[in-house]
Write a structure and sequence with these properties.
Distance between the termini: 40 Å
Largest sheet: 2 strands, antiparallel
Structural class: mainly alpha
Strand content: under 5%
Length: 242
């Protein structure tokens, strides 16, 4: 491996060009995720600072549920269309992630868990769970920004593995930011299974590691996909900020 000494210092750093493609993918995705870290997102700060009488409004909670659930639903539905994971071994690994989201004990899913969590704090939910269908159908019920995100997720997830990687890497931080903001007004929210089970079992962190490892395997075999993978990851992260 070739090393360079940046800025005239004695400390030596490996160049990005000389990294293994999987290492480069991980470093780049982590940098994108850090740039769009949701913990500092203005929405969560404003939610924390709301008077509790406002934050507890059932219709406001219903709107928050709709936006967050729609974004999560869009990505969960889109993973079923991801490319390049067609071999038996990769399908098996992909299936374990599907099961974590949609095959919980007793027929439960993360989608249902999130709705129950919001209903338990008094949300007046706008849509029934089963009304969350295709992105094209869902946008009729969404604000323009969330609608664009749902359509973009469907498009990008079917094109490359970059959006999957960056969303999985950012998911734990998004969930913690939402839980922390709601907990100011609803301390018991962190004990809801949607949050408690994922945090205690490291579900999203495990998904992030798996997404990066599997995508690294694909890119080692097909390095020509690297540029599109990173470009789509950046576009997805920017859309999440919306």
């Amino acid at each position: 491996m070739t090393y360079v000494a940046p800025g005239g210092h004695d400390a030596l750093q490996p160049t990005r060009e000389n990294m293994d493609v999987g290492e480069s993918l991980t470093a780049t995705i982590m940098a994108i995720a850090e740039e769009h870290d949701p913990s500092g997102h203005v929405f969560f700060r404003r939610l924390q600072l709301l008077p509790s009488s406002v934050a507890r409004d059932p219709e406001l909670l219903g709107q928050i549920h709709l936006i967050y659930q729609a974004a999560m639903h869009a990505t969960r539905a889109a993973v079923y269309m991801m490319p390049h994971l067609d071999s038996p071994a990769l399908r098996k690994r992909k299936l374990t992630i599907f099961v974590d989201d949609d095959g919980l004990p007793g027929g439960d899913t993360h989608h249902y868990q999130l709705t129950r969590a919001f209903k338990n704090i008094g949300a007046k939910c706008v849509l029934d769970d089963e009304a969350f269908g295709s992105a094209e159908e869902l946008v009729r019920h969404l604000d323009p920004d969330t609608g664009r995100f749902a359509l973009l997720a469907a498009k990008l997830y079917a094109r490359s593995l970059g959006p999957w990687c960056v969303v999985e890497v950012m998911s734990d931080a998004w969930m913690r930011a939402l839980a922390d903001a709601l907990a100011v007004h609803f301390p018991g929210i962190i004990d809801e299974p949607y949050f408690a089970d994922c945090f205690s079992q490291g579900v999203e962190e495990r998904h992030a590691a798996e997404a990066l490892e599997v995508t690294g395997m694909v890119l080692r075999r097909r390095p020509e996909l690297y540029g599109e993978t990173i470009a789509d990851a950046k576009q997805m992260a920017e859309a999440l900020d919306g």
